[in-house]
Specification:
The complex is a heterotrimer.
Chain A (H helix, E strand, L loop, with lengths): L6 H26 L5 H20 L4 H25 L4 H24 L6 H9 L7 H20 L1 H9 L1 H6 L4 H42 L3 H25 L5 H19 L5 H8 L10 H11 L9 E2 H7 L6 H10 L3 E5 L2 E4 L1 H18 L1
Antiparallel strand pairs in A: 1-3, 2-3
Helix pairs in contact in A: 1-6, 1-9, 1-10, 2-3, 2-4, 2-9, 3-4, 3-9, 5-9, 6-9, 9-10, 9-11, 10-11
Chain B lengths: L8 E10 L2 E11 L4 E5 L6 H8 L7 E6 L2 E2 H4 L3 E4 L13 H6 L14 H13 L15 H13 L5 E5 L7 H16 L3 E5 L6 H4 L2 E6 L1 E7 H4 L2 H8 L5 H11 L1
Helix pairs in contact in B: 4-5, 5-6, 9-10
Chain C lengths: L2 H25 L4 H9 L1 H11 L5 H23 L5 H23 L7 H6 L9 E4 L2 E5 H19 L1 H9 L1 H6 L4 H23 L1 H18 L3 H26 L3 H19 L5 H27 L5 H4 L2 H8 L3 H13 L3 E4 L2 E4 L1 H12 L4
The chains are: A mainly alpha, B alpha/beta, C mainly alpha.
């Protein structure tokens, strides 16, 4: 492709791709652990670390900067943990506080740097909004090395992280140190965030961590495909964003990447098979996940529950009639349910809920329990 | 102390407290090998806490736990744990077989992956709980009873001599209850030790050999026939116990 | 007023104006929404600016409020679809909106006096230079007027809707039951947050609005037990933090907004450590005192349990006690000593036995719990 003969574009696209991969992969686990906003907090909290690294070493070498950013981010997560454990301040407040306070400290340090004679602070500010165009080969090399290390560790510790995310108590009961695993995961996440700061900037990093996972989750029900998809979506968005931004004038890279990502999320939300909104609308005639469900469906569902493992075990209309109030035209109701894909006639006069019908019934029950509690 | 002659589980002076408020006071408990024991008590009595503290999942202020005569730290691998299913996030992207296979992670080291052998063991466990047909089902689509059976299978696959279950019968349908009871029977036949936090007093005499009556402290523990009396139930639950008293009276009398 | 003093006043007014809605965000556990809104209002501001070419136009406030509400609507639509959890919904919506804003700025024209730096960071130092002149009369810095108005509005709304806000925050189902429209309260609060955010972004930038909306209320949360005192303390802490930050920034000639955020964080840290009831130090002191009492109770209960049992002689020997209870020898001795001092136990040679008082205490101790 001619496009990629442009050196800058190659560098930027590669950097964006690496960022997309690392953020997408690790973001999947953050997403599943309900830690999606940690990426946001980490990226803001990195600022003082970047400033201190520069103040102490006078160097803007990528690894030095990233190390400072990582340390600051790490400190921020420790602070959040401490506040949540030892006081009644809720988690989201602790997160927001550390995000903003650390960032404020970073701003103060930035102005300190600004006043120095060697006002090379301009380079540091690129971390705020991302300045992918300023990426150099040495940056991308560092990013790729770190990104690869992250992914490798993720692969090696796959089952540990899966266990940690799904059932940390069970992990404890098996003798795994949950504290250490959690710390390790946070470390990898910090690295993934730090990799991306130069490219998309502080504010948008949150999306890089969350969005690929959110999109991928709509498309699959298994973990490995989800992480793989998230990684792919991350790479795709990164590279596409970089390319688009170089083709269209005055289109900054970071926001372009995020918009590409957001579009992917929107598309997957609408078009995903089985989970997607379009699918829901076609098969159920509405967009909301559950409304008042037809009692006949609920009866059929309850009957079917008596025969687990036999999805085709049907029940006759006579049984349904005893469960329904008088005057209900069962034939019509069943026909309506059938046309919506919620029930099927398994044999002469015998009905059973379909998989979709079962899931709708369960969702309805679950939402009823929620409003009741 | 030789392993064979020691009881499966010994709890001594176990005390758990949150901000100096005791949740478990000085619990002594002996669970003989091969026993199937129920832990019953009112809400807030510390039943789940007892299991979790015995498993080292929450810290104890005092006391110790021994597994087959050895200190808990050495014997933890002998216990398989089935948590309350409400404590899990079931919207996780994985299937039934995968969850059950997680039970084998304890025997695999840090970097090893589960292989065909582990998955076969998982399948066998699924068959035991009558969920063999649901191998590939995403867990987000499971009903409550199915979830419970999957968690039980996950513990079975560990093939541990002791199992601790936290309210496995809570809110499950009849087929699931039957399946769980069948598993408990089989485990008992094989000489395994099972401890179950149980909420349904009516079924205690039918399902269990012995019972621990718990209300922050141990009221009494022992074979159901001896211990499951109206007097003890009143001490545990407070006030008039009514229907339960009739059951208990029938049990101790009969 | 000198420029410095004007900055101080603007800073304090902004801080208090932000802390007021922030208190409710913290209590409702939706603190991160402030982060989302303060970033997501950018496109609204940009569009309004394109239309009016005036940074101080009230249209900006309206546009920002509308975009803020839109943000919340979008987030909640995602949550209601049950396809994406709450935290992820927030993390997806606001970067998308922010990106749109940044792209609009870049594409529009580079002579637009609205660069992303000032959006994110603000610069209080310039505030005195934008003056509000009406009919040729200099009425003071424009930022003071806009933030002052917002402050008054926020105070007014909170006072007016005090009951509704309180109920909707604490128990939204009860609120609905009583006819108090928690949804209206909810969107009203979000509008307040949006308006405050846009008013403040010129002075302190959007990220520091987040600091002001969360840190002082969180500090107050550790210091107050009821809602009214909490809101008042939040306002006071916000003002103090603004003043401290201002002084620090002036002395060292650094970013004022950043200093204020840092000062607010410092005040929170101080409360975290030293709050009279909920601070770490207070907790530790309480635990120290309670530990000995609790241990004495544990000792007596333990002796009571094992009294008269075959293991009694083993369990109740001083030498054996520390092993059975898992305590260190010195701690055991101390506890036994204290218990003997309180005449709850007595020594009988090697053994420690409960006295009649001790037995009563033990009996009471366990009977209290549920049975």
């Amino acid at each position: 492709m001619e496009l990629f003969s442009d050196y800058t574009l190659r560098v930027v696209a590669l950097g964006s791709g690496v960022l997309g991969a690392a953020a997408g992969a690790l973001g999947s686990f953050a997403y599943l652990r309900r830690q999606s906003l940690v990426g946001d907090a980490l990226s803001h909290a990195a600022l003082p670390g970047i400033a201190v690294a520069f103040l102490l070493t006078g160097s803007k070498a990528p690894l030095t900067i990233m190390l400072g950013a990582a340390l600051a981010g790490w400190l921020a997560t420790l602070a959040v943990g401490l506040v949540v454990r030892r006081s009644r301040v809720p988690y989201d407040s602790a997160l927001g506080m550390s995000l903003a306070v650390f960032f404020g400290i970073g701003l103060v340090l930035l102005t300190v740097i600004q006043k120095r004679p060697d006002a090379a602070q301009a380079g540091l500010e690129s971390f705020l909004f991302g300045q992918a165009a300023s990426l150099l080969r040495e940056d991308v090399v560092a990013m790729s090395a770190l990104g690869a290390a992250c992914l490798l560790l993720l692969g090696l510790l796959w089952k540990e992280f899966k266990l940690l995310s799904f059932d940390s108590e069970f992990a404890s009961s098996l003798g795994r140190s949950v504290g250490r695993l959690d710390g390790l995961f946070t470390l990898l996440l910090v690295i993934a965030v730090v990799i991306g700061l130069r490219t998309v900037g502080v504010v948008l990093m949150s999306a890089m961590v969350v969005a690929p996972a959110a999109a991928a989750r709509q498309l699959t029900d298994r973990l490995a495909p989800m992480v793989a998809l998230a990684t792919a979506i991350g790479v795709f968005s990164g590279v596409t964003g970089a390319v688009l931004s170089s083709l269209i004038p005055r289109l900054p890279t970071g926001p372009t990447i995020v918009l590409v990502l957001s579009s992917v999320v929107a598309i997957s939300l609408v078009f995903a098979p089985r989970r997607g909104l379009l699918w829901r609308w076609i098969s159920l005639g509405r967009l909301a996940p559950s409304a008042a469900l037809d009692p006949v469906l609920m009866h059929l569902y309850a009957l079917a529950q008596q025969h687990p493992g036999e999805p085709d075990h049907g029940h006759g209309i006579a049984v349904l009639r005893t469960m329904s109030p008088a005057g209900v035209d069962l034939d019509q109701v069943l026909e309506n349910l059938r046309s919506r894909g919620l029930v099927e006639r398994v044999d002469e006069g015998l009905w059973a809920p379909t998989a979709i019908g079962r899931r709708e019934a369960e969702r309805h029950l679950a939402s009823q329990n929620e409003t009741a509690s | 102390m030789a392993r064979e002659s020691s009881p499966a589980l010994e709890v001594e002076d176990l005390t758990v407290a949150y901000s100096e408020q005791p949740v478990l006071w000085d619990i002594d408990l002996v669970v003989p090998t091969g026993d199937t024991m129920a832990i019953v008590g009112p809400n807030g009595a510390g039943k789940s806490t007892l299991i979790k503290a015995a498993m080292g999942l929450i810290p104890a202020v005092a006391g110790e736990v021994r597994v087959f005569g050895r200190p808990f730290a050495k014997g933890r691998g002998e216990i398989a744990y089935v948590p309350q299913r409400a404590s899990l996030e079931w919207d996780f992207p994985t299937d039934v077989l995968d969850v059950v296979t997680m039970g084998t992670y304890g025997s695999l080291g840090w970097f090893r992956r589960p292989g065909a052998g582990e998955r076969d063991r998982a399948r066998a466990a699924l068959e035991e709980v009558a969920m063999g047909a649901f191998e590939r089902r995403p867990i987000a689509q499971l009903s409550g009873g199915q979830q419970q059976r999957v968690l039980l299978a996950r513990a079975l696959v560990q093939q541990a001599p002791i199992l601790m279950l936290d309210e496995p019968f809570q809110g499950v349908d009849a087929p699931t209850e039957r399946a769980i009871v069948a598993v408990l029977d089989r485990l008992s036949d094989e000489g395994k030790t099972v401890v179950v936090v149980h909420h349904d007093l009516q079924t205690v005499p039918e399902y269990f050999d012995s019972v621990l009556l718990l209300n922050v402290r141990a009221i009494d523990a022992g074979p159901v026939a001896e211990v499951f009396t109206e007097e003890n139930l009143r001490l545990t639950f407070g006030g008039r116990v009514g229907v339960l008293a009739q059951i208990a009276a029938a049990e101790s009398g009969g | 007023m000198t420029a410095e003093l004007e900055i101080l006043v603007i800073a304090m007014v902004t801080a208090v104006a932000a802390a007021l809605p922030g208190a409710y965000l913290v209590l409702r556990r939706t603190a991160m929404v402030s982060d989302a809104i303060s970033h997501a209002i950018l496109p609204g501001i940009v569009v309004a600016f394109f239309l009016t070419e005036d940074l101080n136009s009230p249209l900006l406030l309206i546009a920002a409020a509308a975009t803020g509400v839109l943000t919340v609507v979008l987030i909640e639509a995602l949550i209601r679809s049950r396809l994406i959890p709450e935290d992820a919904s927030i993390g997806i919506v606001f970067p998308a909106l922010f990106s749109i804003g940044v792209i609009l700025i870049s594409r529009a024209a580079s002579d637009v006096h609205l660069d992303t730096d000032s959006v994110l960071l603000g610069e209080l130092a310039f505030a005195p230079f934008h003056r509000l002149t009406v009919a040729g009369v200099d009425l003071g810095p424009a930022a003071l007027w806009s933030m002052g108005t917002i402050l008054v509005l926020n105070v007014g709304l909170i006072l007016l809707a005090w009951k509704e806000l309180k109920l909707a925050t604490v128990d939204s189902s009860l609120a609905a039951l009583l006819g108090f429209q928690p949804v209206v309260v909810h969107y009203g609060l979000m509008t307040m947050v949006s308006v405050t955010a846009v008013g403040a972004f010129d002075a302190v930038g959007s990220i520091l609005v987040v600091a002001l909306m969360i840190a002082p209320p969180a500090t107050a949360y550790l210091l107050a037990e009821r809602l009214a005192p909490m809101v008042v303390v939040a306002a006071v802490v916000a003002a103090v933090g603004a003043a401290l930050g201002w002084a620090f920034a002036l002395a060292l000639d650094v970013s004022i907004a950043g200093s204020i955020a840092a000062a607010s964080g410092l005040l929170f840290a101080a409360a975290f450590l030293m709050a009279p009831r909920r601070g770490l130090l207070a907790q530790a002191r309480r635990r120290q005192g309670q530990r000995l009492d609790f241990a004495v109770r544990m000792l007596v209960v333990h002796l009571f349990h094992h009294e008269g049992t075959p293991e009694a002689s083993e369990e109740c020997r001083v030498a054996g006690l520390h092993r059975h209870l898992g305590w260190s020898e010195s701690w055991t001795r101390r506890v036994v000593g204290k218990a003997a001092e309180l005449e709850l136990v007595e020594r009988n040679g090697e053994q420690v036995l409960p006295t009649a008082d001790g037995r009563r205490l033990a009996d009471d101790a366990v009977i209290g719990f549920g049975a």
